Amino acid sequence: MMAVSFPRLAEVFPGLAVEVAELLVDEDPRLARTIQDLRFYGRCTCTPTCPVLLTAPAGSPGPGVIELERDGDPIALLNFDPAGRSVTGIEVLDGRDLSIPSA
Length: 103
Description:
By secondary structure, the chain is of the alpha+beta class.
């Protein structure tokens, strides 16, 4: 059986990955350093317009939440694993285009 390789979030949404890392650095510098290496497992499929990007396999636990803001405006909610070591999903709140670029 061939293993599936998932692209990095920074390859699919480079601007978002940079912005999330920049906004997260004050809140959790260690977690911010992991953003560029996160894998992208696709968009959440709970609804056709769900703004959640999966950075761990669907169903991965993500009980922790950090809200990222720029100038008081919410940009994203980050879900992270119970140990606080990795982001499992990013809910994009600022209405940006989340279309996945064609290869």
